[in-house]
Design brief:
CATH topology: Oxidized Rhodanese, domain 1
Shape: globular
Largest sheet: 4 strands, parallel
Number of strands: 6
Strand content: 5-15%
Structural class: alpha/beta
């Protein structure tokens, strides 16, 4: 009985000490107040996200943005994208996040389609995560002329540069 008490006490001590110590596994906005964490948000369907997404992107359902973003630093740069130039979800979400007080919200209008196309030529600069097997990725998609109200937009090259900053 005495040994059982020691084992239980030891396990409780490990749990109490170990769980808070796992916070290092999480990327925290508080890690650097000088340079907040850049978040890359994929607003595609879960199916498309799991098939192909920009390395390091987080899948976010449009309807969940209000709730999820409550945990984020409003000074953190946010890069949003969806499927391609014809998709407006990332632009609408950018307006929503700006209205919620986020200071640096950008849209990559080329989306996963353009990124995938570029990755076929240069995987190092345009890294893809996922098997990239959906037929959508191979379709011919034309660029759409952006409007002034589309807000701050980034080219694929600018997103790639931001990725290099994050991972180096």
């Amino acid at each position: 009985m005495k040994h059982t008490s020691y084992v239980v006490f030891g396990m409780l001590a490990i749990i109490m000490i170990g769980i808070p110590g796992c916070d290092w596994l999480k990327i925290s906005d508080a890690a650097s107040s000088e340079k907040p964490l850049t978040r890359i948000l994929d607003l595609n369907t879960a199916e498309l996200f799991h098939d192909a997404h920009i390395r390091g992107a987080t899948h976010v359902e449009f309807d969940d943005i209000d709730e999820i973003s409550k945990q984020w630093n409003k000074k953190s740069p946010l890069i949003l994208y969806c499927s391609d130039y014809g998709c407006r979800t990332s632009h609408i979400a950018a307006k929503k996040l700006t209205a919620l007080g986020f200071e640096d919200v950008m849209v990559y209008p080329g989306g996963i389609h353009e990124w995938y196309t570029l990755s076929k030529e240069d995987k190092g600069t345009y890294p893809i995560e996922g098997d990239a097997q959906l037929p959508f990725l191979e379709k011919n998609v034309e660029k759409v002329k952006l409007k002034e109200e589309d807000g701050k937009v980034l080219s694929a090259q600018e997103v790639a540069h931001r990725l290099q900053e994050i991972y180096t």
